[in-house]
User: Fold these one by one.
Assistant:
Number 1:
Amino acid sequence: MRLVILSMLASLFLVIFQTSIAPFFQIGIIRADGFCALVTWLAVEAPFIPSSLLAVLIAGASASMASVAAWYSYPAAFFLAYLIVSYNRIGIMDFTYLHRILLTCLAAFIIELFLFMSGGNLEGFWPWGLMQSLFNMLLAPLFFTIFHSVSSMFQKIGNLRRTENDQETI
């Protein structure tokens, strides 16, 4: 349940970020996109857990509300990227921070490919989709830091509440 609430807050933050601040850092159609980092973070932190699957679909629905793409494009692309990144995460034995960044590039590549295909503009993927994936890979450490700090804050609040309830029962 914590992942769903965290994903809803992160999705709200990312929609606000991508519609208000990110256009100032836009180069052509390449923009700062934190949703790929969110999908990768959810796949790495909780692979194949139903609450994280729901969180990915909520993130996709919130991303599609701020887009002109078809309503099913973002949830389907995020879900596909989540499944592929989760599958690859399980196969990596010695998982490092670099692997997270590379998996973000893979997730961004899958999402951009799916969005270009669903929009019927596959020929635009070569220069723009690939550069968008590399730009998301460069921004991934920033978003991972934000998601991790907010998640640890939620965990500390949950531990404090649990401790207070334990003291009341004594």
Note: The chain is about 80% helix and 0% strand.
Number 2:
Amino acid sequence: MLCKRHYTKTLTYAILGIFLLCFAFSAHEVFAMDIKNVSEFLKKPTKNISLSKNDVIMFHGVKIHYTDEYDIATIGKNQLFKTERGDPKYNLPFYGGITAVAIDFPIKGDDSIAIVSAIDRYFGFNNHMLTKHKDSFILCSLIDTNGYEIFSFDASIGNNAFILGDTQLIEYTFTGPDGQVIYKTTHPGMFAGLNLNRIAVFENETWRIDNIGEYPDHYKRQLTAIDERLEQSKEYNDDDLRASNAILYAYCCIMTGENDANCIEKLHLFLTPQLSEYSKHIFQVIKKHANTFNPLTIERFSLSGNKLP
């Protein structure tokens, strides 16, 4: 059984961790996408993108503004999204380092804007990536996530993709073959939650979630980081932290495309002794989730704001 798990994280982490500024390269034509904070468009507006002094963004004809309760995107009378902002005293600043514009992304000639809105005191987030692509807008949404690094860009995965970080910090409840609960992640620490990092790929005129084995190098880097945390959990004698990271290790191992036997062997090695006897069963639960996990909602709109099929 899967359910969401909230972690309180500092505003500093929320702001600093969201966007990675880097370059991406096309296999056919070398060009750099340019990642800008939207505040840059206050003094240097372009034909298609601007920011007014009263905090209204114009993005290829889309008006994006906020009230105390909502972030709103409209074209004329047509609404693309209306996102809850929650209690203002817990909210992130609308342009405080967390609204980014990506020029020439996901392909040359396209532009994208990423907007992140805090909705509660636990820093739950609503997240939107709006892409102007040819004669339409594509809206990619992640609703009520709980992490601080939501959309990030990394040259190693190419110029037509971005990383979905902290898409869901969740609790896993594992039941054995007899239906009895054998393990539930309950550790309150920041790193014990299961952060199912994933990649969004632009293909066939839309966004999709990456497939198992499609980006092995990215997930191998995740495995290295988890290895370090597993060693720390042994030093701290923290069984729950160890189990959570063992499960996350298995997830990333699956995503590299590694064969099941090797991933199960690692999971069995890393799990606590009381859980290791269930390693094959736990692995099958993780693999099922890796195959079906898709946090994205995709919508397409015409340039006048009418919703398209």
Note: The longest strand covers residues 136-145.
Number 3:
Amino acid sequence: MIAVFLTSFNLSFVWYFLSALLLIGIEWMFVRFGLYVQHWWNYFYTFIFLLACFFSTLKWQTMLDRPRNSVKFWTMYLCIVFIEDTVTFYRVALFHTNLYSPGWFSDPIRDHIAGNAVATFVFSIFVTIGIFYRFRWYGYGLLLASNCFIDIALVHLGYLHIAPFWNLFYSTSLSAIMIVLYRWIYSKLFLSEEHLGK
């Protein structure tokens, strides 16, 4: 979000360095108060990684002026992953609707985060393909049905636990609503430009 803010307002490179230093200061406080542990990572890596992200965002903005299909695809994919992760975070944190437990970590929260990340990344790829290639309604229906069947299989295998008040119909309905939102975002970002001949 900071990288998008810096790029959107065309702030000078000084702000890139100050923002990176600010985030390193926050990381230092987390380590100091025992909220975060560095094993092999150090502050220099954070600084370099943040600057790379900031400058990548600047480059991405210039590529969006006249985007190629690959830029459109990955921009839409990253938008979908961001929104899906945010909605899932609040849905799980506030209402405890579902919990992944693939068995990769002993800590159940880390296990859920890892399982949910894989599910989100995979689902978002297929949604992006559907939006990018302009699937018809039955294409999205097949996508939602496939996702529902995968969730049913994960529940039966014990990798996905769903709260008693939540069911797969709610998840599928929410996904359908989100797909409508993603199609609208794609049309606002890219299709309006195509009609203008850009």
Note: Strands lie at 98-100, 160-162.
